Each structure stands twice: as C-alpha cells, then as structure tokens.
Predict the 3D structure of the following.
Amino acid sequence: MLKKLCLKKTNSRITILSIIIIIFVGLLLWRLIHLQIVEADELTEKAKYQQQKTIKIASKRGLIVDRKGSELAIDIKSYSLFAQPDDFKESLVEIANKLSPVIDEKPDTLLNKLKGKNFRWIKRKFDESIAKQVRKLKIPGLGLIEESKRTYPQKTLAANLIGFTGIDNQGLSGIEDSFDYFLRGGFNPEEKVGTDALGQEILRANGIPVLFESNQANKIILTIDKNIQYIAERELSKGVKDLEALRGCAIVMNVKTGDLFALATYPTFDPNDISKQNWQNIKNWAITDFYEPGSTMKIFTLAAALEDKKTRMDESILCPGVIKIEGWLVHDHGMGAGDSRTLTPTQIIKVSSNVGISQLGRRMTPQRHRQLLEQFGFGKVTRSGLSGEVPGILPSLPWRPSRQSTICFGQSVTVTPLQIVTAATAIANNGIKVDPNIIQKIVSPKGKVLYNPSSHSIQSMSSDVAQKMLKMMTEVVQKEGGTGGMARVPGYTIGGKTGTADKVVDGHYRGDVMSSFLGIVPIENPQFIIFVLLDSPKKQHFASVTAAPIFQKIAQYTLRYLNIVPTKPEELKKEKD
C-alpha cells in the first residue's frame, strides 16, 4: 500500500514537471516565433545600428576634362585615420607617441585629437604607404577608411577656372563649385563601417574597413582647349611680370558658339595645395571683378549711334582738343585746348578720340543710349553658369550730359572681362550677341548626356552696323597710325580696339590704369575674340604697347594651332623669305 502511494506521488510529480517543461518549451517556442516573425524588422535594424558606425566620407567626384579629353581634375585613392576613444586599450600618451612619427604630427597635437569619447577624425587623405605603417601598429580604437582625394594633374593650368574642393570633396570655387551637384552624382554618401560586438572595425584582408555604400559621379567636358589655355597663361604671365602689372586676364572665345577656348588669369595657384593661398590668387577675377573699360567702350557707343541713325560713316565731325560739359573737361590725348581736327567715325575709333565719341554719343537720348547698351549685355551677368559672376554697373537713369559723356568713353560704367568679350560677339557675328559656354556637355557614368547647353543669342544690332564696325576696328590694327598696330598677326587681317582706362581706387583716380586689347580674328570670317587685360602695369601704360603685343602672341598661336586658313598668305611668304 505504501509503495503504491509513493509511486502515485512520484507519477504526479513527473506529470507536473512534464507539464511545466511543456509550458516552458511552449513559451520559448512562442517567443522564438515572435522574435523571428513579429519583431524581425525591428531587431534587424537594432543589429545594424549596433554593428555599424555611419560616417560621412569624401564622396567620389566626376572627372573634369578639356574639350579633347585631357584630364584636369580627377579622384585618386587615399586613406583617412579615425578614432573611437571608447575602444582604446592603451593610454592616450602611448597612442600619441606611437602615431606621431608615422603620420608626421606632433604628439601634443595628437593628444588633443584623441581626447573625448565620440568618433573623431585623426588625419585625412594620406597615401597607402602611411596607411600600411598605421596598420602595423595594431592600436585598438583606431580605424582606417578608404576615401577619394581630389587632385589636379595639370597643377596651375586653368586653376582659377576649375577651382578646388574641400576636405570632404565639396566644391568650393570655380567649376567644382558651380557644377558641384553633377560632380558629386547628386548626393553626399555616408559610408558604413562594419564592427564586431565590441564595436571594433571589421577589416578586410588588406586592413581596410568593410564599406557598404559607394558613389558614382558624372564627367564634365569643358569647352576649354588645354593647349590654348596654356599659351594664354604663359603669355599673360610673362606680360604681367615684364610690365610689372598687379595681375592680368586673357580670354579666347568662339564667336559662333560662345565656347570659351581659354579663360586665364594671373596670378594663379596650385589647387593641389591651397593651404597658403589667398583669395586674390584663387578667384577667377575675369567674372568676379569689374572695372571701367575706358576706350574699349567707344566701339559700343559708336555702334549704338549708328544703330540709332545719329551718324553716318562719311560724316566729318569737328573735334576740338578739349570740350567742357557741365564744368567737366573732356580732352584727347596729345591735343591742346586750342587745337582742333575733323574726324570721321572711323577715325574717331582709329585714334581713340574722347571728344569725338562724346559728341556722337550725346546725340542719342539717354534712354535710347542705355537701351542699346543693355542689348549688348551691359549691366547684367552672362549665361556662363559660373558662380560668383557679377553684372557690372550700367548706371540707372536719368543721366546728366556729363554722365552720358563719360559713359561714351568707358567711365562711370563698369564691366567684367567676360562681359566685354560677350558684348563684342555682336560685332563679330553679324549683330548677334552670343553668350559664353564653358560646358561642352555633362555625361553620366553610363554615357548618357545629362546636360548639353545650346548657344543663347540675341540680335543686338543690325548686320549692316556690325559690318561697319568690323571695318573700323580693322583700321585700328591694320592701318598706319592706328593704336593697335602691335596686335598684327602675319597672314591674317585683325580688327581690334585698345583701351587705356584710369583705374578707380577707393573712389578716386590715382594714376594707375587698366590696359586692354579686344581683338577679332580673322576679320574676313570672324572665328574668335581674344581679349587681354592688364591691371596697373608700371613699366608702360598704354594698351598699344602692353596688352596688344600679348594679344598678338596668343592670336598667332591660336590661329595656327586650329589650322585657320590665312587670309593674307602673301605675308607669310614674305616672312619666310
């Protein structure tokens, strides 16, 4: 009886225990099912959060190339070192002393970088040889990541135009800034670094962290020709140095398409190392700075007067040596108060008469005069697409006679170098003004054309007036006594206009000048406008002996390099003989 009772109790216990086990297993199974199905998405995200650190890295940028495919801006592989201080196993002093000779930074500087608890960069964008040395140290809490580093294989060539990027490969100036969205591929990537349970980086066999995201960007093909750009920069640099000018600018632009074959400024800089550069050397002052154009404006004043039918090509105009307008004296170079001469419109341009152009310009009403200048594009930015471009200043109405007079010969009005070149396309192109293009096209990694700008043009003057202006500008260069004689290129007929403008400094004329030459080549079938501007040349002032010779060298190379057929081959034969 007792045995049966004990057995019964034992069976009851086993049954109870079995029930408990079944319930426990059931709960475990229920929890497992809940975790696998109901909470799966949430837990997956938590796991990712615990196993990955998200860091912004320098995104891969697209290539920038010239019109023939020569690389101007590229990305190369580099490495960056970061720290997660919570994972350090050694003292900060020990880590700093080990790292210092490897990455070439002082221990004290490294100590400041290593302090704290959160993620921080220690050194950005160094080459693989340094990365190998860092890996050998095997310091817990330090990690390496592969990044893109922007580099410029042509160094200073077109640097002010191309610009540069920041440490995170963001465009900061020039093309790099203006077209940053395309070059970055439309977004700024964040890379995820795999970590283990302790938060340490999971490394590949080569020691580089595992990356889970990548980026591809677009290629920008510029209108610039590397060889013409080089010649423009070389001759400009030599001219600035020889004449002891503060700076210079040279532009070569196709009159039919608006393509910029060269846009050079000097001084320049190397975008591979901008640490010691100042903004004056970095900026593309061909678009960011304006100046009073001086006598170059005379061709646009005369074109406006012809368009408004206020003069004729055969008109003879009495031009005293000095005239007074509202108490202000206007005089011609080399002429005294008692002197006078009779000049045709062509001669006014040829000898660059302030008095003559002032008299012609004031025949127009100020309203009509301003309207015609606006049609040339003065007072507004071009359609270059370059960031930082300024519109210059075309004074608002009303204009007093003295104000209108000074505008006629390029004072009281300001322009950028690119703006004056753009205005001149109307003269070279049968009255049609063509805005500049710096981008030939933008292409995706798969070869799809994303952006292919078309020329933007407007009729700024009649074809008849444009042809008359070309003829007058030819006499400035090709005829004896013209101010542009030193711009002649053997084998070609050149038209142009010199400009020697008093420079405004702090609201006053201080004796310095802006010397320029604007030339159209070849005059029989205009292909290019070439413009040279020198800021404050000290050895010589007049554009006829400063800017014109620089133009001549750039024009001669450009015409021959592009195989433009000579219009006066007999001159080339004489040159050989």
Observations:
- The chain is about 35% helix and 20% strand.
